[in-house]
Write a structure and sequence with these properties.
InterPro entries: ARM-like, ARM-type_fold, ARM_7, TPR-like_helical_dom_sf. This protein has 596 residues and is an all-alpha fold. The protein has three domains: 233 residues, Leucine-rich Repeat Variant (Alpha Horseshoe), CATH 1.25.10; 131 residues, Leucine-rich Repeat Variant, CATH 1.25.10; 195 residues, Serine Threonine Protein Phosphatase 5, Tetratricopeptide repeat, CATH 1.25.40. The longest helix is centred in the middle third of the chain and has 27 residues. The radius of gyration is 29 Å and the shape is elongated.
């Protein structure tokens, strides 16, 4: 016998409406629900809104609710929360503006016609008020997400850009978002708003989980702000607002952290800026930005190619060439033998062509120092050597390879005996003898010389050689020893992010390596690599700058602190020794200091 389900005590209940079997009656009831909900003050309103939030997340391309007035309803609910604080503080209504903005963002992220409907429904003004910070950073996050989706479409961008304050607000938010989340939430665990905690963890996990999610959301708040700015950056008329020096210099450091590695963040925006001549001028006038682009271009960053694009566009522009050539040349020279980087084919050829054009231009020659000019000509000569070697008899190539091998072995012997300077010279001699087409041998020679430069306290030269080895290697950026050596070199000059990314990739390569010196037996990460990763995760911690500013950690400390549960990476007070400090005493044989 079937149980009788009693009638719902709430007239017009959304969940009952959704169960209606008659399609016409169901549509009419849903439309009525959306129309009347903003004017009601009943308890429990958050329940249907959270249900709509789940539906929007699961089925963002379903047009049913769009046609029935969901955008008008969500817009009205946000306005109600902004204007009626008494209602907002009643029951669980504090959650409603967040859910409403999130629903708008979900339904507009894929479908341009949905976005047009949303704009016509008047969603932009209340979203802008949330973006201003009229409520809290949690609502700012979903507001910038929704506005970012609306700005991506050609038909709705004008409506977004007509609100002139949006761009300025996003620029300020991109620069301050991490500090806002740290100081308003992360720093003091006992002062956190309960609804923030609930939204972050959905009731699962305690303080540590809240802290981890807060870091992720802070990264999203910054990255989504940058994404929205990026939509404006495609339009030249907005570049003067975006390209302020105080903003440009911060962009390379906005990288999203390890919690948001899928976003190009600051480097993505820089690439858009550099694509236009009106953007390249301001960028070229910021030496710190050029230096950062060089570091990203010579790193394991997933967005490495974006930094390379920026440098090449700056070098190709006659108005910016003279400003950047001396800083950019060493980096692009190191990258000139890279062939494929992800989907980017023949990248090295593009670099060589740009350098060839620069050296042939009469106007550019006066801007190039003799040293840089010699380095470019040397690289171009190696290209000619490569062509010449194609016509050489195999026997002659084998003789050159054998000669290079003999000299390399002499270098290894000198290295093992502790004569590092002489070993570096031998590796240089071997490189001059080695055929250009013998890439595997040249990978080893560059990597060996990089180790020498590490021990000689010359980290910049070590970075250069390790990068050349990684570019020659197939696949690119996967030569474990070169990754480790460059990670140490970046550590020596205080570039934590670049060192961290190389160290993580080194560990990944070790786990797949057949080399007994590298293989992580029983999946155990080498202690020396683990120490460096821990150190750099603290130094590159997303909240580090905010924590230092607000007293969460001392400037000399390696990681986060404060009431928010530290930096989320655990504590490790051990000091990290660079190769230059730890390897000299035994001829460089500690860890993976030995040469091949």
């Amino acid at each position: 016998m079937e149980k009788h389900i009693p009638d719902c005590p709430y007239p017009g209940c959304f969940f009952c409406v959704m169960k209606e079997g008659n399609p016409n009656k169901r549509r009419a009831s849903i439309m009525k629900f959306f129309r009347e909900l903003p004017s009601q003050d009943d308890d429990g309103q958050v329940l249907p809104i959270s249900g709509l939030w789940n539906t929007a997340m699961a089925h963002p391309n379903d047009p049913e609710f769009i046609e029935l007035g969901i955008f008008e309803c969500m817009s009205a609910l946000i306005w109600k929360g902004l204007k009626n604080r008494r209602w907002l503080s009643h029951d669980q209504n504090i959650y409603i503006p967040y859910y409403a903005a999130h629903i708008i963002g979900s339904y507009t992220m894929n479908m341009e016609d949905f976005a047009e409907t949303a704009v016509n429904a008047g969603v932009i003004p209340p979203l802008v008020e949330l973006l201003r910070g009229r409520l809290t950073w949690v609502e700012q996050r979903v507001a910038v997400r929704a506005l970012g989706h609306l700005a991506t479409y050609a038909s709705t961008f004008p409506a977004v850009s007509s609100h002139g304050e949006i761009l300025e607000l996003c620029i300020q938010l991109a620069m301050s978002s991490l500090e806002i989340v740290y100081s308003h939430f992360y720093q003091y665990a006992d002062r956190r708003l309960s609804y923030h905690c609930d939204l972050l963890t959905r009731g699962m996990g305690g303080v540590e989980m809240e802290s981890r999610k807060a870091e992720e959301w802070a990264s999203q708040l910054q990255c989504w702000s940058l994404q929205l700015i990026n939509c404006f950056a495609f339009k030249p008329e907005f570049l003067s607002t975006i390209c302020k020096p105080e903003f440009l210099v911060k962009l390379p450091g906005m990288w999203g952290g390890l919690v948001n590695e899928n976003s190009p963040a600051g480097i993505g925006l820089l690439r858009t800026i550099c694509h236009h001549k009106f953007g390249r001028g301001p960028v070229s006038s910021c030496p710190g930005v050029i230096e950062s682009l060089c570091n990203i271009a010579r790193s394991s960053d997933d967005w490495q190619y974006m930094a390379i694009d920026c440098l090449l566009w700056l070098l190709q522009d006659p108005n910016t060439f003279h400003k950047v050539i001396e800083k950019a040349a060493p980096a692009v020279l190191d990258l000139a033998e890279i062939q494929t980087l992800g989907d980017h084919k023949k990248l090295g050829d593009s670099i060589l062509n740009v350098l060839q054009e620069s050296i042939n231009s009469t106007g550019n020659r006066n801007s190039i120092s003799n040293r840089t000019q010699e380095d470019i000509e040397s690289l171009l000569d190696s290209r000619e050597r490569f062509k010449w070697e194609k016509s050489m008899p195999k026997e002659d190539l084998h003789i050159k390879q054998a000669a290079a091998l003999v000299v390399k072995l002499e270098g290894n012997s000198l290295f093992s005996s502790g004569n590092i300077q002489a070993a570096a010279l031998k590796y240089s001699e071997a490189l001059s003898l080695c055929p250009v087409r013998s890439k595997k041998e040249r990978v080893v020679l560059y990597s060996n010389r990089a180790q020498c430069y590490l021990l000689l306290q010359q980290p910049l030269t070590a970075i250069s050689d390790a990068t050349r080895a990684l570019c020659l290697h197939n696949p690119v950026n996967r030569h474990a020893k070169s990754l480790w050596r460059r990670a140490q070199a970046y550590d020596m000059i205080g570039l934590a992010k670049e060192s961290l990314l190389d160290a993580i990739l080194f560990i990944n390569e070790c786990s797949n390596s057949m080399d007994p010196d590298l293989n992580c037996r029983q999946n155990k990460v080498p202690d020396y690599a683990e120490r460096l990763v821990k150190k750099q995760m603290k130094a590159a911690w997303l909240f580090r700058e905010a924590a230092v500013k607000h007293g969460g950690i001392d400037c000399e400390e390696g990681g986060g602190g404060g009431g928010g549960g530290g930096d989320g990476y655990g504590s490790d007070d051990s000091e990290w020794e660079t190769a230059s400090e730890s390897d000299v005493g035994d001829g460089g044989r500690k860890e993976i200091g030995s040469n091949e």
